[in-house]
Design brief:
It is built from 19 helices and 7 strands. The protein is α+β, with helices and mostly antiparallel strands. The protein folds into 2 domains: 239 residues, no CATH class; 105 residues, Arc Repressor Mutant, subunit A (Orthogonal Bundle), CATH 1.10.10.60. Helix 8 runs antiparallel to helix 12. It starts with a helix and ends in a 10-residue tail after the last helix.
Length: 362
């Protein structure tokens, strides 16, 4: 085994760990630094997220993607910063991203750099797959692997904005996309709109960045073909060490989340979306001790809490987003989950949430 492979085994080598999507801890460390500077109880936040101080201190450490997402959510709540992920992307020295940054920066053109990051993004975050398509434009779609999409707002916003910053820095041009879309809902943000300078959509069917085809041949100012060849060999070894297994529960949950507002979150349509029969889906869920109804109910409960904290969403709108035919059906389910009416939970959650504001500069 090569020295590169030995080094990578720390993150990819054991079969047990590869069943759980893991990621480089860069984003977690950024959030930790922001929380520590603000005087938050970082030890408590780490414990709640299932992370350790050792993982934060070790720049080569890998963390479970679910833990990273949970930690970002906890820090955002502690700092009252509903744009935490986006803010982290604006502060970071892009070189801290590491391997993916240098693969992109040594590429010849922006189109080549984008193809590289799409192929290799799972090396640094096993919970993300980046689908790349070129036609009349360049489409990049972020897909979640083995991780529930509905739990995440901040990681995806950090990664997307950081990718845009890299594209601009490496070409020395103020590039922009035609459109940037996110699956999660969010109140319109002037900060994000000013940064992207393009159509920005939330509550979309996919997490996507669509670029004009004209950017494909834009030269990279730091292109280095010799370094690029070395890094590509490194990345290919890393890919060869990865496992493709992922959590069926997360895959089913992600499929359900996209179908809920359309009232089509039934087992038949989810099975079709996952390219399997209903019988196969039921059997595979049962093998993990799960049922389709249980996954659906758990997902609705998680989403309800998020939606009820959003000041722009009415109870009736939330009921529709969760796939209920009317408010009474949603109210009945919510009382079963929490013992409270949606209205009572809405008041409590909104009292805890202050309006988003730009944090003080550091």
């Amino acid at each position: 085994m090569s020295a590169i492979s030995v080094a990578l085994t720390r993150g990819f080598g054991t079969k047990r760990l590869n069943t759980i999507p893991r990621a480089a801890s860069t984003i977690s460390r950024l959030a930790y630094e922001r929380a520590a500077e603000s005087g938050a109880d970082v030890d408590q936040l780490l414990r709640k997220a299932g992370l350790s101080q050792a993982q934060i201190d070790d720049s080569s450490a890998r963390v479970e993607v679910r833990s990273q997402i949970k930690f970002l959510n906890l820090v955002a709540e502690a700092l009252n910063d509903n744009l935490l992920g986006f803010h982290l992307s604006q502060d970071i020295d892009l070189r801290r991203i590491g391997l993916l940054y240098y693969v992109m920066s040594s590429s010849d053109t922006l189109g080549e750099a984008i193809r590289r990051v799409a192929r290799y993004v799972s090396i640094v975050n096993e919970g993300i797959r980046l689908a790349h398509r070129e036609g009349n434009r360049i489409d990049l779609a972020f897909e979640y692997v083995g991780v529930p999409r509905h739990l995440d707002h901040h990681q995806i916003e950090c990664m997307t904005a950081a990718l845009m910053r890299i594209c601009r820095q490496l070409t020395n041009r103020e590039l922009t996309a035609d459109e940037v879309c996110f699956v999660h809902l969010r109140t319109k943000s002037a900060e994000m709109s000013s940064f992207y300078r393009c159509m920005l959509r939330f509550g979309a069917d996919a997490d996507e960045m669509d670029f004009p085809l004209s950017i494909r041949d834009t030269p990279i100012v730091s292109a280095d073909p010799y370094l690029n060849n070395i890094l590509i060999k490194y990345c290919e070894e890393a890919l060869a060490l990865r496992s493709n297994r992922c959590s069926l529960e997360a895959s089913v949950g992600n499929a359900i989340a996209l179908l809920l507002p359309h009232g089509r979150a039934c087992m038949r349509d989810v099975a079709r979306k996952l390219a399997m029969s209903q019988r196969t889906l039921a059997r595979r869920l049962a093998s993990e001790g799960l049922t389709f109804a249980g996954v659906l109910d758990s997902l609705r409960c998680d989403l309800a809490k998020r939606h009820l904290a959003d000041r722009d969403l009415s109870i009736s709108k939330i009921a529709w987003l969760l796939g209920y035919s009317d408010v009474s059906a949603f109210s009945h389910a919510h009382k079963r989950w929490t013992g409270k009416t949606p209205r009572a939970s809405q008041r409590r959650l909104r009292l805890r949430r202050v309006p988003t504001h730009a944090p003080a500069s550091h």
